[in-house]
Amino acid sequence: GNSVTQMEGPVTLSEEAFLTINCTYTATGYPSLFWYVQYPGEGLQLLLKATKADDKGSNKGFEATYRKETTSFHLEKGSVQVSDSAVYFCALSEVNQAGTALIFGKGTTLSVSS
Amino acid sequence: EAQVTQNPRYLITVTGKKLTVTCSQNMNHEYMSWYRQDPGLGLRQIYYSMNVEVTDKGDVPEGYKVSRKEKRNFPLILESPSPNQTSLYFCASRTGKRRNTEAFFGQGTRLTVV
Lengths: 114, 114
Hints:
Helix content of chain A: under 10%
Number of helices of chain B: 0
Number of strands of chain A: 12
Largest sheet of chain B: 7 strands, mixed
Distance between the termini of chain B: 36 Å
Shape of chain A: globular
Number of helices of chain A: 0
Order of helices and strands of chain A: EEEEEEEEEEEE
Shape of chain B: globular
Strand content of chain B: over 45%
Oligomer: heterodimer
Radius of gyration of chain B: 13 Å
Number of strands of chain B: 11
Order of helices and strands of chain B: EEEEEEEEEEE
Largest sheet of chain A: 6 strands, mixed
């Protein structure tokens, strides 16, 4: 079945450090890929997405490129801020007989200190 | 404003006392779902609904019920809650037909069963 694997956390960084959170997926078809972010005490919100191979999603300084050859969608940011501290979820969406299922990774907690 | 509204945000209850968590969306989305979030396990889907009067089990449906009598509402019912259902619950909605659409999440309901 379809699945998403994220790097284990927590990830602890100093302000202005470079961030990478790895995400790989398994899918039978051509999924869309997403990164969601969950700030403390809040629900999940979409950070960025990519809908086909080689697409790059970007938002708020974060980027991720849909790599079909390596089945990956790694999240990167060149210079993190304290306000980026949150839980990050990689997800894929594919059409099946149940409609459009959204499958999440387990989440990676990022903690940024000043 | 497009939103998914869950109530209550926090709930403490006793084992066996029936409870309902409400979820409402104002975006005319066909697809709604419930997730629970537990440490180390990420988000797991409980139930989903592709449209009015159409519901189906997700990955962890035991002990839960849902109904979809109206398009905007998708309540989660725990007929006889047990301590292992202590968790953080999220309702989500999205357009059901295309794989590249984002899901919108409620703020979450933190349930404690004692």
